[in-house]
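User: Could you write out the 3D structure of this protein bound to magnesium ion? I've included everything you need below.
Assistant: Certainly. Input first, then the structure.
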Amino acid sequence: METAEASHFIQDIIEQDLKSGKHNTVVTRFPPEPNGYLHIGHAKSICLNFGLAKKYGGRCHLRFDDTNPKKEDPEYVHSIIEDVKWLGYDWGEHLYYASDYFQQFYEYALQLIQQGQAYVCSLGPEEIRSYRGTLTQPGRNSPYRERSVQENLDLFQEMKKGSFEEGAHVLRAKIDMASANINMRDPVIYRILKARHHRTGDAWCIYPTYDYAHCLSDSIEGITHSLCSLEFQDHRPLYDWFLEKLGVKCHPQQIEFARLSLNYTVMSKRKLTQLVQAGHVHGWDDPRMPTISGLRRRGYTPGSIRKFCDLIGVAKSDNVVDMSLLEYCIREDLNRRAPRYMGVLNPVKVVITNYPGQSSEELEAINNPEDESMGTRSIPFSGVIYIEADDFREDPPKKYFRLAPGREVRLRYAYFITCREVVRDPQTGEIQEIRCTYDPETRGGDSPDGRKVKGTLHWVSAAHAVQSSVHIYDRLFSRPNPLQDEKKGLGLDDTLNPDSLQKMHGCMMEPAVKELAPGDFLQFERLGYFCVDPESHPQSPVFNRTVSLKDTWAKIEKKMQNQ
Ligand code: ATP
Ligand code: MG
């Protein structure tokens, strides 16, 4: 899928820097913390960082910001690597871990202490908080702020040796407790954590904080432009403070952009973890999740996600993007690329009474009307077929052009049929079969005498059908802004869409679907785009519906607004 890139303010900054000679290359990084799976918001940052590096012939690093061993897990490292690769990006040899720099971070901390710009503080976490002040009130100096350099060095080295319990001491930057920016009020840069790290094992029991480790990692790697989301704007003075005081050679420029929010879903890892742990979804890769792995299982393609990130653009102010834009991107991509098949989700039997005996024949069908190179396939036709129950009405309403008693319709790629009789179960009244006649002259779907029919139905030959299951997904939340709802006191039970998953069994598909492999995408004509679930078997296929053909939600919403 081609992407027509729009220019944005970060590109303007980069181009200015290249022109002025401030930089002669562009080095960016994507810095996930391995404490969860990546979501569509991360995709925005990935596309931006890798995209800019590519555009300007520079490079983009994948760096794990693994400084909090209590929350992190190698499972997440692995999934993040897979997801970034799947999105189509390549960091070459530039895979890094903040934990690789622990020794250097430590030495920088010693330097700050020696310069009188860091001190060991022995207030407890609660006290530190209360000394910090508020937005309207300045903070107070810690009673430990004036410790001598030697005392600080000794204590910090003892912290590193493991001589103290968690929470006994922290190392703080000595900046300004009266600063209007709370981030500058002597922020903590090291804390004692007696936790085993997934890469450094038990080598360390002090771990750096995000603000301290992040700017130093950027500097060590020679990053030119450090892109992050808007909430870090107030952290930028601190980012610059560390790098200035340490006098490092490379001082990257931090640039903030608005994070992606999408309606009808949540993107905070805290909320996503809650959905997984409470069993509201089947896991991080549940097709209803906004995670990259969930979208993949749902049938989203990397190209559609890149296109989406391109369309939403990069701006300085927060806004909420409509989920239908993401759906538009996958429809566009799959319309061009997905092979078409016929399948009946909710089958009702049609007997063609004048079709010769037990015979069958092969008809030719086009694989993708958007792309001739995808060729044709043959579909078996016989005297007993299935059509969609919804495509028949005994008492058709106005403008219903599908099958009804006495009415003639076209079977796609096959024949015209006319409904002659409806057979119902005498007890339940349920339709057992619909009896029709066909016109052998209309083979292929056109009548030689030029008569027209208004409806064209999809169908599957009963004797050849592959019985399948289909999972129909809808939005996970029924309300557009679940996080705001949470603030209003609404729980997940009030905001989750109870119909976000509908499992259908006994669906009947044309035999060609047997050749599809897990992960393959397709269109079932008139029904939507689907993909073969990873746990599907050729004997009993499972299809996930990625998206319907039309935006039914937009219609429902419109209706609700008009009510
Ligand atoms: P969450 O808020 O979901 O817990 P996070 O920001 O803590 O996410 P990180 O692993 O620290 O997750 O994020 C890695 C990078 O992805 C950061 O640079 C962050 O700014 C960016 N990022 C995270 N969420 C979004 C989003 N919704 N839109 C754009 N960028 C994002
Ligand atoms: Mg973060």
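The radius of gyration is 31 Å.
User: Perfect, thank you.
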